Amino acid sequence: MTVNLQNQPVNSWKSITAGVLSILAGLLAILLALMMFHRHEVIGLLSRGGRWRVVGMFAMLMGIMSIIGGIFALMRKVWGAALAGAITALYPWGIFGILAIIFVAMGKQEFSKPSKATGDKLSGS
């Protein structure tokens, strides 16, 4: 882990890039979901098109999770949530998700760790 003189992690481009890629993939997934909802309305006039609604809801959920994970990656707060957001970024276009996963994994040391004082308060000691 690279640290500066004040023992704080040095911030690099990895987590910022991962966050931007996750947010971009999330926005694309939400756009895809909206297109699926619109397609459901058009197809629904001709036949039963309920599966488009299910696909749209799945895409919307993946998009929201990707955006939340991207925000955590930009804030460098919760590595697990940032990684989950990068994994869900695989859905719309895989290359964004693959790159986001790689950059979140490479930048793991940039994320803040909970302090011992916070851990002591949570455990009741």
State the gist of this model:
The chain has helices at residues 13-44, 50-75, 79-88, 94-106, 116-123.
Overall structural domain count: 1
Which structural class fits the helix and strand makeup?
mainly alpha
User: Care to count the β-strands?
Assistant: 0
Portion in beta strands? under 5%
- Poorly predicted regions are none
Mean pLDDT: 79
Helix amount: over 70%
Head-to-tail CA distance between termini:
30 Å
Using only CA atoms, what is the Rg? 19 Å
Rough outline: elongated
Helix and strand succession? HHHHH
Described by strand count, sense and barrel closure, the largest sheet is: none
**Helix count, per DSSP?**
5
Index terms:
125 residues; mainly alpha; 71% helix; 5 helices
Structure, explained:
The protein contains five helices and no strands. The mean pLDDT is 79. With 125 residues, it is mainly alpha-helical. The protein has one domain. The longest helix has 32 residues, at 13-44. The chain is 71% helix and 0% strand.
Explain the layout of strands and helices:
Elements: H1 13-44, H2 50-75, H3 79-88, H4 94-106, H5 116-123
